[in-house]
TrEMBL record:
Record flagged with keyword Cell membrane: no
EC number(s) on file: 2.7.7.60
Name the record gives this protein: 2-C-methyl-D-erythritol 4-phosphate cytidylyltransferase
Keyword presence, ATP-binding: no
Family to which this protein belongs: Belongs to the IspD/TarI cytidylyltransferase family. IspD subfamily.
CDD domains registered for this protein in UniProt: CDP-ME_synthetase
InterPro entries from the UniProt entry: IspD, IspD/TarI, IspD/TarI_cytidylyltransf_bact, NAD(P)-bd_dom_sf, Nucleotide-diphossugar_trans
């Protein structure tokens, strides 16, 4: 008799809970639609789930009246795993219950995640999904660095539990569908549940299926929940912290892409080495402060190649050219590239200069211009899927990053609105 093979892998569904109104944030629109680092919060979250190999399908629960906004994001970003956008309920648990109903009864693994935790890292999703293959219930959590106390009547300290045993609960929280459904059915049948609601799905399972152990998976400090206005500033800063190890593309990584480079032979060479169809214009060919010359060069490249996927504006070679290249030139290149990049949903990469010592005011002024332009364009072009980033030389960068290779890595990445530090050549 043949020995039975391993159990087939169950389908894993990511449920993104976005049904809240964001009362504590205090805006007119739900906080998951706020734009941070060039994209809406829910867009950041969906992008991580879409890219996670462990996730087969995504269901979004959205605030009633705002489902069209999410459908539009899904279509624009091409999130193919999103199978449904469903209206959420009046409470988080009601939104979860609606999600469970939408999933039907066929057994699967479900990872429930707060839409407003956009900084969830792939390894946390992978950790939860993998643990869920062999366990019926899992939750992401981290140790508490604060001492936590229990407040008694009259705001008097009643108890300080042993911190070593305390964990801060995050999402994803993962369950076998049949288990979490059963726990929710019991909760809904309990007349006491509405007066003592649970603040998360783990709480529902722990209360109504105490027979099932819930396994704790390491979450991460970055996986914060955007709840109060100050969290927007923190999340924005964290989203802009580009990992020191940007993926450095190898041969073939830019196959089929057209890269137009103004005045940056190093980036042109690396892009060509990665397989891109490179159209490079040196300073002798095109002076970027000449708007007509830039437009003509781009039109020529687009005609030859049929499309333009990436445009790079290099840094000035001397202080005398700094304003012409990094200020006027960057604006000219952006203006001429806009139409092509909208068509290809492409990428503009600007380079800030490193000027010799003795030019700190000039360097600060042109760097300010390039980085502000990057952020403004990233915001303005994000709705059309166009990314805009900037490479900025940093002296004494902790992890040295070669500019040309970093440039190719950025072109291939999903980043937008980022100012990425590279090693200064001076
Ligand atoms: N009826 C609800 C309430 C909340 N959530 C989602 O659950 C997550 C965590 O909830 P929270 O941070 O409390 O969001 P809000 O309920 O929107 O915030 P507030 O309590 O300040 O109104 C959020 O992604 C939120 O959209 C949901 O899907 N359905
Ligand atoms: C699920 C949760 O994020 C775990 O920390 C939290 O309980 C949600 O609480 P909220 O009040 O709905 O934000």
């Amino acid at each position: 008799m043949a020995t039975p093979g391993p159990e087939p892998r169950r389908r894993t569904v990511g449920v993104v809970l976005a049904g809240g109104v964001g009362q504590r944030m205090g805006h007119d629109t739900p906080k998951q639609l706020l734009r941070i680092a060039g994209r809406t919060i829910i867009e950041h979250t969906l992008a991580v789930f879409e890219a996670a190999p462990e996730i087969d399908e995504i269901v979004v629960l959205m605030t009633p009246g705002f489902t069209a906004e999410v459908e539009d994001i899904v279509a624009r970003r091409g999130f193919r795993k999103v199978a449904a956008v469903v209206e959420g309920g009046a409470t988080r648990t009601e939104s979860t219950w609606r999600a469970l109903r939408a999933l039907g009864t066929e057994e699967c693994d479900v990872l429930l995640h707060d839409a407003v935790r956009p900084l969830v890292e792939p390894h946390v999703i992978a950790g939860c999904a993998e643990a869920l293959r062999t366990r019926p219930a899992v939750v992401a959590a981290i140790p508490s660095s604060d001492t936590i106390m229990v407040a008694g009547p009259g705001e008097v300290v009643e108890e300080i539990p042993d911190r070593a045993r305390l964990r801060r609960v995050q999402t994803p929280q993962g369950f076998r569908l049949s288990l979490v459904r059963d726990a929710y059915e019991r909760a809904l049948a309990d007349p006491d549940f509405p007066s003592r609601p649970a603040t998360d799905d783990c709480g529902v399972v722990l209360r109504y299926r105490p027979d099932v152990p819930i396994f704790i998976v390491p979450g991460s400090e970055r996986n914060m929940k955007v709840t109060h206005p100050v969290d927007v500033t923190i999340a924005e800063s964290l989203l802009r912290l580009v990992p020191a190890a940007l993926p450095l593309p190898g041969p073939g990584a830019l196959d089929g892409r057209t890269v137009v480079v103004f005045g940056d032979a190093g980036v042109a060479a690396v892009a060509g080495g990665c397989g891109a169809d490179v159209h490079a214009f040196s300073r002798a060919d095109v002076r970027v402060e000449d708007a007509a010359a830039v437009a003509e060069a781009l039109a020529r490249a687009a005609k030859d190649a049929g499309r333009v996927d990436h445009v790079v504006c290099g840094a000035p070679e001397s202080p005398a050219e700094a304003v012409a290249v990094s200020h006027v030139g960057a604006l000219n290149v952006a203006g001429a590239a806009e139409g092509y990049l909208r068509e290809s949903r492409g990428h503009l990469l600007l380079r800030a200069p490193a000027l010799p010592a003795g030019e700190p005011a000039l360097e600060a002024s042109v760097t300010g211009a390039v980085t502000a332009l990057t952020e403004a364009l990233a915001r303005a072009w994000a709705p059309d899927g166009v990314r805009v980033n900037c490479l900025r030389p940093v002296r004494d960068l902790a992890a040295p990053r070669d500019a040309a290779r970093a440039a190719a890595g950025v072109l291939l990445s999903d980043l937008t609105g980022q100012v990425i530090g590279v090693s200064a050549d001076l």
